[in-house]
Amino acid sequence: MGASFATHMLLLIWFFTATFCLSFFKAEPHVSCNEKEKQALLTLKRGLTDPGNLLSSWSSDQEDCCRWERVRCDNKIGRVTELHLSSPLDADGLWFDYKKRLGGEISPSLLELGFLNYLNLSFNDFSLSHIPSFLGSMGNLRHLDLRDANFSRPIPHPLGNLSGLRYLDLRWNDFNRAPIPSFLGSMGNLRHLDLHGANFSGLIPHQLGNLSGLRYLDLSFNDFSGLIPHQLGNLSGLQYLDLGYNSDHLYADNLRWISQLSSIQYLGLSSIDLHKEVHWLQIMSKFPSLSDLHLSYCQLDNLNPSLGFINFTSLRVLDLSENHFNHEIPNWFSNLSTTLLQLDLMSSSLKGEIPESLGKLKHLEFLDLSSNSLNGPIPQSLGNLSEIQTLFLAQNQLNGTIPQSLGLLTNLEQLDISNNFLIGPVDEEHFTKLSKLRSLDISHTPLFFNVNSNWVPPFQLQYAGMSSSKIGPKFPTWLQTQKSLRLLLISDSGISDKVPDWFWNWISNIEVLDLSSNRIQGDVSDIVLNSTFLNLRSNHFKGHLPQLSANVQGLNIANNSLSGQISTFLCHTMNRKNKLEVLDASNNLLSGEFSHCCRYWQSLIHLNLGSNNLSGKIPYSMGSLVELQSLRLQNNSISGDIPSSLKMCSSLGLIDIVLSELRFLNLSQNHLTGKIPEKIGNMKVLESVDLLQNHLSGEIPPSMSNLTFLSQLNLSYNNLSGKIPSSTQLQSFDALSYTGNPQLCGDPLPKCTVEEKPPKRTPIGKTEDHFENSNFYMGMGVGFPVGFWAICGILFFKRTWRHAYFKFLDDIQDWVYVTTVPNVNWFLEKLKSHHLSLPPRTKFQFPALSPVMMEDKATFRLECKEACYLAKIIQGNGSKKS
Length: 882
Fold this sequence. Notes:
Belongs to the RLP family. It is a single-pass type I membrane protein. Keywords: Cell membrane, Glycoprotein, Leucine-rich repeat, Membrane, Phosphoprotein, Receptor, Repeat, Signal, Transmembrane, Transmembrane helix. InterPro entries: Leu-rich_rpt (IPR001611), Leu-rich_rpt_typical-subtyp (IPR003591), LRR_dom_sf (IPR032675), LRR_N_plant-typ (IPR013210), LRR_R13L4/SHOC2-like (IPR055414), RLP23-like (IPR046956). It is found in: Cell membrane. The structure is a single chain. This protein is an alpha/beta fold. Among the domains are: about 25-175, Ribonuclease Inhibitor (Leucine-rich repeat, LRR (right-handed beta-alpha superhelix), Alpha-Beta Horseshoe), CATH 3.80.10; about 650-780, Leucine-rich repeat, LRR (right-handed beta-alpha superhelix) (Alpha-Beta Horseshoe), CATH 3.80.10; about 785-875, no CATH class. It has ten helices and 53 strands. Strand 32 (about 485-490), helix 4 and strand 33 (about 510-515) form a beta-alpha-beta unit. It is globular and about 85 Å long.
């Protein structure tokens, strides 16, 4: 009875407890959204462009707007509290999908959302419009994310009314070099302020020191100048501060204010001149929480402690690259063995041997000692870096053999030991446990591969650089096992062999291939090339020009033994689908006349067919190549007049477009007759004119005085006569530019004996020769590359964007010569498709470049190396030692 009573009591207690819990945790009934707010959202949608249909669920047919995608509501009252309108990630999850960006106009209907506290419009494209001023009236906003949304103009003053705002991100926009408005310093609740790469300039306002609650402040990659305000030292709770990569005129008179940032964890002062701070090491080592320290380009010259022991207790990332230490690597780095994950000492004027003590950094994942003057052997102790993923030792004076201990680095993904004096074999034992290796570069070293013909490597490379090292004379069969390769550079590597049967199909997935300057044999007549860029220059290939898939953008197959009619290649049905931008087939045995199939090559920018056996006239259909910037046809047997017009194409509106693109005109050593066309004056960007050794007659057209960018001129050995037109350009060249024209006179040649009647000028744009139906001028081959290094110059101007540049700079002449516009867009587009561990980030927009945060500098260095090498492939100097 007692047991039964106890059982009933327990059941009763359980029942009441369960009832209470159910009532307590009962879910609130869903409340539909406010009708007024629903209509406000629909109005917002109507003002936006939405190519990706991101707002497809926003429909009047679906009554509850709280269930729409990218909308969050308060479930209790049914009011919209959050709008997540950023661009989505692409299929790889690595980049934001720029084809699906929202744009258009942001409607003031947002003001109807009275409870909105979170607004994210990042990674969209608002076409350089201004940030809407009415956002300053949305008093409940706590989180405003406008990063990389293509806003411009100064920040509107009403934004300062958002006194409750805690998070403000404006990075990667373009504020037209405006100063930071001082009213940001009155937004006292801000915890996060990011103005990275937003094109601000002027002084950093001292009012920012009033934001006592600030935890995150990023002002990097702008153009600030003047003294860093010491008031920033008032931000005692600041955990993240980056002032790096601003103008050379941003400076700190001392670092005392930094010592007040007791909570700092990330400190970036890159490109700020700190050479006067003798005790910088002691100052930086006193922060108990400091984990990331970035001091590249700071003009530092001392790595040796001047006052006692250096004690970084929590440092994980140390970047001291691009400084001027001019001494050996100190041993105190080994004191960081329990914490340090990344150490970057690239291009810091270090000398002496690599100390064995670096092998004590047992947690190190990234080590960059490249581009210094380090000598001696690679220490065996580096084999103790069991966590290392990236090891860059390139461009030093290291000698000796590669230690076998490097083959024990099971986590190693990138190894670059190129441009050193290392000797001896690279054998299978060096790779025994390198199963994660994806990038290997041993280029420009005396090393030689010594592996069995049936060797199967444990790794799958994405990048292989072995140019100017010894991997021949036989074709390396182990390459066939590499299924992930996208970039293979083996120029000048001693291969003297026939291309194996498997090779041409195997390279179909490789994007960049360089086999130049070997002695590789094979008939390429019946192959189909699929790689994006190929350099087959200076080998022993024969047969007709190969067929091209639509993927091929660049082919350099110069200096071989190719033969056949050029028209067969131009008119091949498969080739008509091409996207080719670069073709260099010079110094071969190609023959025949150009055909009207030129019109199928609409993407061509650079065409070099010099030193072949071509004949006939230049067809008028070349006028359809509106992108062509450089055409090199020297040393052939091309005849006829230089086309003075494209009359047949004038209705297409192509004349001015074609002429305005050409920068280099080289038709030397042919059989051209007639006059230099008057219309040459329309070619405003011409930089070089070479008409050497033809049969041109008549006078130099007066229109040439309109040219203002000429840096090279060669009209010698023709039949030109009359007075050289007067201009600041034509008289700046010496007499050699005009020699071999006995009847030509005037400065810089001897004065004309009889003052001639000024020639009747033909108006620019009027035809001079009615029987020739063409007015397309042809340029020399260096025109195509200029654009590339113009962009690469931007890429490498900032510290983080320069990692690959050190390896490929031959000299200033190559630097100017090796340039190309189209490869920049190609390279940057490819960054998002290589399945690398990249964080989400913006991409470059050409011609205006958006700055990029390089969190993964090792990956970016690999990508940049690829871009720089593309230029070498176009030039044909990929095998030259940097």
